[in-house]
């Protein structure tokens, strides 16, 4: 059954009603779960399989019957491994009912329906005893309850409870142990995602940063990144990888709710400790013969051949205070954790530091803006373009009206001598932040309108604006064209503008590029089979959920996901942002000019301010056929992934990519279709 639900349209900037399936939320949860990506991880599957067999052999060698508990079974894969290797009993628990139901089907399809008991409960709710969920405790636990931070999905509680309530005293656990590693680095690039720097407008004028923003510790959330995609020039390692936490999953003493570690280390290079990189490694067996590592390539035994995975990435943490170190100088790294998260600090102090509380943002910026947005505010390329165009158009008669979230453009315009600058900022926290910037920069001609654009009246301004400015960027935007909210809001604020007011940017251009993704295609591709088990029923669950809840085009930071160009970039549509709203529909085709398998289309927008200044959300270097594309690292691009069945056409000569595009002015929707076809003869 379908029901009306309220949702925010990021293009129109309005809350709207939409008819959606009643089960939309749980379909979305399944689609976002990374189940498919995880099951494509052949190394994970293989090493779990090997370690589980070794554990079962060890229990048999003790003269015991093998009783396996699989917590968080998902597809049922680990439970089926145990059943297939002859376990006496296998219990698998899965709390999410739709997934549990499908796991039951997968288990049945593989012939283990009478060998595996599936419990649709959280593991902490399982009861043990005659007639209960489990008749007796297990002597092997196999589970995969890890995330980027290792402990963020509640692993500590899961293992602690299982050891106490669900397992025999000498039970074996797969994996056996885990180690979290940290590495201090000098990296202005990574630090740019954490705090905003000063921005030069002219040789004499600079937008300064309030002290409260400079000194703020930020938010406690990990910044998860594909660290292997960093360029060598992006960072300088100041330390080797340092073990900071060790967990033995059979020993509750290593699973305390809180812990901290002080590591005395020596700087390998001179620099500023801008960031702490983090990853972890699993010892799948007690002898650590089978290891599963999430390390980036420079710390991985397989180097650049290390397996790709998106469900477990690496993390970046930002010390509240940076320190300068010289080669050979000793300093301290303090690692802290609770049950779910990690945080780090660095110090020159020889005295053991006290464990710090998790960082807390008190400036408002880190709570209101994403890390990608903070990085965007620091992007020299963008800021030079804004400064260049503003120097051409801002005069002492300029009355500026600024739209967008957390932009520095209003302060740049004020620094250039604009008569008046109005900043539309309906968010209370960002309103206060704008006021801090005004005070710090001693700007008298800036006024903040704490209203949504739709609610502004003419008397909210002392005089009409003759310059409408935006980057554009809105915090609700996920895809590049969501920032067309700037254009869709224009009719609502037309009464605040003078006739002939200048609009910047004046033009927005849609582009596309057919590509071959090295790995990203896996997030949508069916698994079909893993370790000899048929997972097609689980594929069906995920693909149905994606069909219900996912848009055909999804946002991805493509600098983290390598791809090669199979066509030249192609123009899709251009809209005039200074004109009235107007629907647009275009179509076309582009020839494949590079060999390979086209598994996706990358989509982006350019915002044109004038003939000399364009800001792109797409490639930042010339696209070369058959070569890796260099993407803007401070925005997300749109990605359309093809069904795997479409790929065969691209291996043949004379194939084309056909596309259609529609921008609807009434609904504020942008729709694409893509199809790979042979050239008609």
TrEMBL record:
The keyword Iron-sulfur does not apply. This is Protein arginine N-methyltransferase 7. Essential arginine methyltransferase that can both catalyze the formation of omega-N monomethylarginine (MMA) and symmetrical dimethylarginine (sDMA). Specifically mediates the symmetrical dimethylation of arginine residues in the small nuclear ribonucleoproteins SmD1 and SmD3. GO terms for biological process: methylation. Keywords: Methyltransferase, Repeat, S-adenosyl-L-methionine, Transferase. It holds the Pfam family PrmA. The keyword Manganese does not apply. InterPro entries: Arg_MeTrfase (IPR025799), MeTrfase_PRMT7 (IPR014644), PRMT_dom (IPR055135), SAM-dependent_MTases_sf (IPR029063). Residues 216-333, 508-644 form the Protein arginine N-methyltransferase domain. Transmembrane segments: none annotated.
């Amino acid at each position: 059954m379908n029901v009306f639900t309220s949702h925010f349209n990021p293009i129109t900037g309005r809350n709207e009603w939409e008819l959606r399936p009643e089960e939309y939320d749980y379909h979305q949860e399944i689609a976002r779960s990374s189940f498919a990506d995880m099951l494509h991880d052949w190394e994970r599957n293989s090493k779990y399989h090997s370690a589980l067999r070794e554990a079962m052999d060890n229990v048999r060698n003790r003269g015991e019957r093998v009783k396996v508990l699989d917590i968080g079974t998902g597809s049922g894969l680990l439970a089926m491994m145990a059943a297939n290797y002859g376990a006496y009993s296998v219990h698998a628990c899965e709390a999410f009912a739709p997934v549990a139901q499908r796991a039951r089907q997968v288990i049945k399809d593989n012939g283990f329906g009478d060998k595996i008991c599936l419990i649709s409960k959280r593991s902490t709710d399982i009861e043990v005893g005659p007639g209960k969920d489990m008749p007796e405790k297990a002597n092997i636990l196999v589970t995969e309850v890890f995330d980027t931070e290792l402990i963020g999905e509640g692993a500590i509680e899961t293992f602690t409870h299982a050891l106490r309530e669900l397992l025999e005293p000498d039970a074996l656990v797969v994996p056996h142990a885990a180690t979290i590693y940290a590495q201090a680095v000098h990296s202005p690039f990574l630090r740019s995602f954490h705090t905003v720097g000063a921005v030069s407008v002219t040789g004499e004028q600079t937008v300064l940063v309030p002290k409260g923003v400079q000194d703020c510790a930020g938010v406690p959330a990990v910044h998860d990144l594909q660290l292997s995609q960093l360029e060598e020039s992006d960072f300088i390692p100041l330390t080797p990888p340092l073990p900071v936490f060790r967990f033995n999953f059979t020993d509750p003493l290593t699973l305390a709710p809180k812990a901290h570690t002080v590591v005395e280390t020596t700087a390998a290079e001179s620099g500023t400790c801008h960031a702490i990189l983090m990853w972890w490694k699993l010892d799948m067996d007690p002898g650590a013969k089978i290891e599963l590592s999430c390390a980036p390539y420079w710390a991985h035994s397989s180097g650049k051949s290390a397996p790709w995975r998106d469900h477990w990435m690496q993390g970046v943490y930002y010390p509240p205070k940076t320190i300068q170190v010289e080669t050979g100088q000793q300093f301290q790294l303090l690692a802290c954790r609770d049950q779910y998260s990690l945080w780090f600090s660095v110090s020159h102090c020889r005295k053991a530091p006290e464990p710090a509380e998790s960082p807390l943002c008190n400036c408002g910026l880190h709570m209101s803006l994403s890390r990608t947005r903070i990085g965007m505010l620091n992007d020299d390329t963008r800021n030079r373009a804004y400064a260049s165009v503003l120097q051409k158009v801002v005069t002492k008669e300029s009355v500026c009206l600024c739209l967008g979230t957390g932009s520095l453009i209003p302060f740049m315009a004020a620094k250039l001598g604009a008569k008046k600058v109005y900043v539309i900022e309906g968010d209370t926290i960002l309103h206060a932040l704008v006021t801090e910037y005004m005070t710090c920069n001693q700007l008298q001609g800036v006024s903040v309108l704490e209203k949504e654009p739709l609610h502004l009246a003419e008397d909210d301004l002392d005089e009409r604006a003759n310059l409408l400015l935006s980057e554009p960027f809105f915090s609700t935007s996920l895809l590049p064209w969501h920032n067309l909210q700037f254009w869709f809001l224009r009719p609502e604020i037309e009464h605040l503008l003078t006739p002939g007011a200048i609009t910047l940017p004046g033009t927005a251009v849609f582009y596309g590029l057919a590509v071959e993704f090295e790995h990203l295609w896996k997030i949508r591709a069916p698994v079909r089979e893993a370790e000899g088990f048929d997972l097609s029923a689980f594929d069906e669950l995920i693909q149905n959920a994606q069909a219900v809840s996912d848009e055909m085009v999804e946002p991805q930071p493509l600098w983290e996901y390598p791809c090669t160009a199979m066509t030249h970039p192609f123009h899709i549509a251009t809209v005039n942002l200074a004109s009235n709203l107007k629907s647009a529909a275009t179509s076309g085709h582009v020839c494949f000019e590079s060999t390979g398998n086209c598994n996706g289309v990358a989509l982006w927008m350019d915002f044109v301010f004038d003939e000399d200044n364009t800001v792109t959300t797409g490639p930042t270097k010339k696209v070369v056929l058959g070569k890796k594309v260099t993407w803007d690292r401070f925005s997300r691009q749109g990605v359309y992934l093809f069904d795997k069945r479409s790929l065969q056409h691209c291996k043949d000569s004379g194939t084309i990519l056909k596309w259609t595009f529609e921008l609807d002015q009434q609904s504020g929707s942008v729709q694409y279709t893509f199809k790979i076809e042979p050239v008609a003869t």
